[in-house]
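Entry type: protein chain
Record version: 2
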Amino acid sequence: MKIIVCIKEVVDPALSLDFGLRNRVVFREGLPLRLNPDDAAALAMALGLKSTDEGTQVEITLISIGPERVESYLKNGLALGADKAIRIWGEDFTKLSSHQKARLLSGAVSLQGADLVFTGATSLDTGNGQVGPLMAAWLDLPCVNNVVALELDREQNNISLTRDIGRGEREKLRCPLPAVITVKGEEKLPYASLDRLVESKSGEVTRLSPADLGISGEELQNDPTQVTDLVYPRPRPRKVPPLDSSLPAFYRILQLLEGGISKRKGTMLEGSTEELAERLFELLKEEGVIRPATGP
């Protein structure tokens, strides 16, 4: 059984970025990058199939579009148990659309052949979730989105899938093979052994260009989709209690910035051990932490 997992690097979201900006691109210069979580979950799901399906020879191929630095993700995938790694790159690939990425990835899948194609459901940078379905359209394969679990049925040549349909609800369905599956990030990658990590550093990564995939520059540029705007979400407003009108304007502004809630003040207790214990007991009763017993 041949499995292909498409992975991608994204900007690390653990950043304090500005909000309310409007533009047509995602700025990446100088920002830390990481493996997209949904793609990591897709790789974890593929590795799980390989470890549990002992009666079938499972081969996992990783594919990524990007410059030379993405080979680190591919080699880490080899250390985790993937068998092959492919990097696709060419000139003027810095601003590829989802349609262009899907065309390149589908070309690589057609060249390699696969029974299952895994992608992440969405990415942390644009979050449009278009690459998987567009790949399925190019490959003329069924596509199931937002998958959180699956079971392989080799006898019936299909898979049983559980997908997240939102608001805590799950949907179970069957899908024939081959198919394209987009995975939602609930599975975590295992840890690779030190020996496998060291060995993967010298692992082979196959480099392909659009010409190797049989895709001409004109065909790749013939993109019917166009991003017109990216709008970053604004923070949700928070309700605050009414401000104290007796305060000066400066202090009302401070109260508003603090959420309209005064900070809790501490109390310093002094005295002997017996006096401190008695006062602490009274404070706990005043705060309602300790309530007197009622009834027999």
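Comment: DSSP finds eight helices and 13 strands in the chain.
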